[in-house]
Specification:
CATH topology: Alpha-Beta Plaits
Number of domains: 1
Strand order of the largest sheet: 2-3-1-4
Helix content: 10-25%
Strand content: 25-35%
Number of helices: 2
Oligomer: single chain
Order of helices and strands: EHEEHE
Largest sheet: 4 strands, antiparallel
CATH class: Alpha Beta
Shape: elongated
Distance between the termini: 16 Å
């Protein structure tokens, strides 16, 4: 664990991961089905994932979807996506739907 990755009680801080993806609108229906099943299932079943939210777009950004996951600690996230856990990872079968994607990670204060 890196310095500063524990709270005042010395416990590892959880990490919240926000994944955003912009899709090809012509593939929306197929993407939505797979995003809410395949991608969701992979993350929900990962060891160390405490919580997952799969989010649909609003009318303001109709082609942008998100997943917010909370991980027990840095080690759990690194075990799932690798040591470079600041990089967005998507299943290969989902790449055809994407125009662009990104991930941002945050550590909890407590």
């Amino acid at each position: 664990m890196l310095p500063g990755n524990s709270n005042l009680k010395g416990k590892p801080m959880t990490i919240t991961r926000i994944f955003r993806v912009e899709i090809d609108a012509d593939l929306r229906s197929e993407f939505e089905q797979k995003f809410n099943t395949l991608s969701k299932s992979i993350i929900e079943n990962a060891s160390g994932c405490n919580r997952l939210s799969v989010l649909k777009p609003t009318k303001w950004a109709p082609d942008e979807y998100a997943m917010i996951s909370e991980w027990e600690n840095e080690a759990a996230l690194a075990a799932f996506v690798g040591e470079n856990w600041n990089t967005a990872v998507i299943p290969s079968e989902m790449r055809r739907y994407t125009r662009k994607y990104s991930v941002t990670d945050y550590m909890s204060w407590d």
